[in-house]
Design a protein that fits this description.
The protein has 254 residues and is an alpha/beta fold. It has helices at 19-31, 52-68, 87-92, 118-127, 141-145, 148-155, 164-167, 173-184, 205-216, 218-233, and strands at residues 2-6, 36-39, 74-77, 80-82, 104-108, 131-135, 159-163, 190-192. Bound molecules: fe (iii) ion.
């Protein structure tokens, strides 16, 4: 399988600290049945700076190291880009790196918030031929409280990626339940690991797909897996018509 979101590159962000951790993550990925993984370091924030060219160079080095270790995992370059007002300019300046230089770009919101300019920015990205993929919407407090925000963005062409561990309940029952609601409402298109290490933020892809298989059947698993393959081919992905989520009262009660 293909994993579209990981922090497997050594020493660039809060993922693998060094090459030996990257190698351990690679071994775990292969155990999970992953053959291709996109390295998606955080682009810019207070602590890190990972522009396009640096990531591409680091990915070449990691692939060489994995070959030497005889680990059968292909690493592709990508980036988890924290949304910012000048993203289009960043793309034009060659700082933003879509997944393996396809049209698909991972976009992260801060965990509590969706900026008001998002819809306009996504429109501008799309006119440049890019397709924004919102990462882990199920962990965003504003989206949990007002899923209509996500519906509007998906309706206008954005895609979304739910984190495997969220489906497994690792981030709590509320986030698990919301993840499943997103699947029910056709508001997500990909499952990815967002793995940071092999201990507390590991892959959980197989486990998540097992849950999806039990709840929705093998066809749904196939659809998500196929979509991840289509992204790295730069092809169009499968999309069902998105539906609105009715906010459950459940979310108000803590
Ligand atoms: Fe991430």
């Amino acid at each position: 399988m293909v994993d579209l979101h990981s922090h497997i590159l050594p020493g660039v962000d809060d993922g693998a600290r060094d090459l030996s951790e990257s190698v351990n993550m690679a071994k775990k990925a292969v155990e999970q049945g992953i053959h291709t993984i996109v390295a998606t370091p955080h682009h810019l924030n207070n602590r890190y700076e990972n522009p396009k060219q640096t990531i591409i160079e680091r990915v070449i080095e990691l692939n060489q190291a994995l070959q030497e270790e005889k680990i059968d995992l292909n690493v592709l370059p990508g980036q988890e880009t924290r949304i910012y007002g000048e993203m289009v300019e960043g793309y034009e300046k060659g700082e933003i790196l879509p997944i393996d230089n396809t049209q698909y770009v991972l976009v992260e919101f801060s965990s509590g918030h969706v900026p008001r300019y998002t819809e306009k920015l996504f429109y501008d990205l799309q006119t440049k031929g890019l397709i924004p993929v919102i990462v882990h919407p199920e962990r965003n407090q504003e989206i949990i409280e007002r899923p209509e925000i996500l519906y509007q963005l998906v309706e206008k062409g954005a895609l979304t990626q739910v984190t495997a561990a969220s489906i497994c309940g690792d981030f709590g029952k509320k986030i698990k339940s919301f993840s499943l609601q997103l699947i029910d409402a056709n508001l997500t298109h990909f499952i990815a690991s967002d793995a940071h290490n092999t201990i507390n933020r590991t892959f959980k892809m197989r486990e998540a797909y097992d849950i999806i298989k039990t709840k929705y059947g093998t066809e749904m698993v196939y659809l998500f897996r196929e979509n991840a393959e289509l992204v790295i081919e730069g092809s169009h992905v499968y999309k069902e018509v998105p539906e609105r989520i009715k906010k459950k009262r459940f979310f108000n009660i803590f």
